Amino acid sequence: MKLRDELPTDHKLATVYRYGAAFCGVVLVAFGCLGFADQLSPFDTEGTRLAGLSTNGVLSLLSVLFGAVLIIGVVLGGNVASTLNMAVGTLFLLSGFVHLFILDRSANVLDFGMTNVVFSFVMGLLILTFGMYGRVSGGLPHDNPYWRRRHPEQAAREDALRRAPARPQITGPDVRPTASPET
Predict the structure, then answer these.
(1) Handedness of CA 54, 59, 61, 65 (dihedral sign)
(2) Is pTM beyond 0.70 here?
(3) Cβ contacts of residue 77 below 8 Å, gap of 6+?
(4) How confident is the model at residue 138 (pLDDT cuts 50, 70, 90)?
(5) Distance (Å, rounded) from C-alpha 130 to C-alpha 86?
(6) What is each CA distance from 21 to 68, 84, 136, 167, in whole angstroms?
(7) Cβ-contact 42, 57 below 8 angstroms
(8) Helix (H, G, I), strand (E, B), or coil: what is residue 53?
(9) What's residue 4's pLDDT?
(10) H or E segment and range at residue 54
């Protein structure tokens, strides 16, 4: 199975994946480009602040790369954008947890501060929510591709009922209901 086969190209969920990935990707690319414009050194941990976040050259590069990945998801659209959003959102959440534990230590080579950790959590949850929209829910409609994938037998029965020709109903005075064997 290919990822693009699961959703039709014009499915309304693809719009959510695309706009969410585009917004988050543009924010990340802008942050990274501002870091490059300031000509930050790659592993500087002296507390250079940009847009309220501490940064260095490597963090700017990572921001541009992850922003580009999300924008590539916008171009590809559909299920690819959703899957990329879920993967990148998970990585942002993990990064937030890791950097929370290495604040003020020598292992903090990306110069994360507490504002960066909060940003990582918020951005990760936002991106992850965009990726999960329409995939994770207890009340998905039966025409949703993710519901159909989880319930293939019931989806096949519903498809067969929709394709079956309508049977004419016989009604009239000479049609009598048959008695059940119990009576």
Answers:
(1) negative
(2) no
(3) 9, 14, 17, 18
(4) low
(5) 8
(6) 10, 9, 18, 48
(7) yes
(8) strand
(9) 47
(10) strand 53-54
